[in-house]
Amino acid sequence: MAIAAMLFPNTPVFSWVVLPILIFLARITDVSVGTVRLILVSRGFKYLAPIAGFFEVLIWILAIGQIMQNLTNPVCYIAYAGGFATGNFVGLLIAEKLSLGMVLIRVITPKPAHGLLEQLRAKQYGVTAIGGQGASGPVQIVFTIVPRREVDAIIELIKTFNPDAFYSIEEVDSVEKGVFPVQRHWHQSVFPGLLRPFRKGK
């Protein structure tokens, strides 16, 4: 913002166009970083979360500082609010792409789960099955813990096996050992591998 101020010193172009755009972009950035920080906190990345928080607040201070210096400019208010709204959307997209952490998928089905178990094991997912008693009779309960990025593939297998099967998905704080599928793409192993030293679990 300081560089832009030097390029457009006290001009209407800076006050009504350049400055609102910079505030808009800064707000998108700090809200996006804040969303990612919350994801890092919930996934146990206790060293990366404070770093993200530092940059989040730093960018916010720069943006709010410009607002305070231009209280008579309504375009800055609109840019600030618009950046906040857009930042939430962008932050969720980033979090979705990162797909950090592990989840527990629990499937409860009255139908024998041999087919589902075979499919999961064929794809190298770790799986545990036990018998249980449901409201209308015997059921089988299938547990598997998978990387979050694999959730869609698991759900597809479940629906192929039994479209009416009940399943739930829960966050997992940390895991040790276990059986996990081979990474499908290089970036799925490189990025989580870089973050692993900063996480409290594996």
Structure, explained:
There is one protein chain. The chain is 57% helix and 16% strand. By secondary structure, the protein is an alpha+beta fold. It folds into 2 domains: 2-98, no CATH class; 102-198, Alpha-Beta Plaits (2-Layer Sandwich), CATH 3.30.70.120. The mean pLDDT is 82.
- Whole-number radius of gyration? 24 Å
Helix content: 55-70%
- Walk across the major sheet and give the strand order: 2-3-1-4
Instruction: Please state the structural category.
Output: alpha+beta
Q: How many β strands by DSSP? A: 4
Please write the string of helix (H) and strand (E) elements: HHHHEHEEHEH
User: Treating each run of at least 4 consecutive H or I residues as one helix, how many helices?
Assistant: 7
Shape type: elongated
In total, the number of domains comes to: 2
Layout of secondary structure:
Elements: H1 2-7, H2 12-43, H3 48-69, H4 74-98, E1 102-109, H5 114-122, E2 128-134, E3 137-147, H6 151-161, E4 166-172, H7 186-195
Antiparallel strand pairs: 1-3, 1-4, 2-3
Offer a quick outline of the entry.
With 202 residues, the chain is α+β, with helices and mostly antiparallel strands. The protein has helices at residues 2-7, 12-43, 48-69, 74-98, 114-122, 151-161, 186-195, and strands spanning 102-109, 128-134, 137-147, 166-172. It has a four-stranded antiparallel β-sheet with strand order 2-3-1-4, with helices on one face.
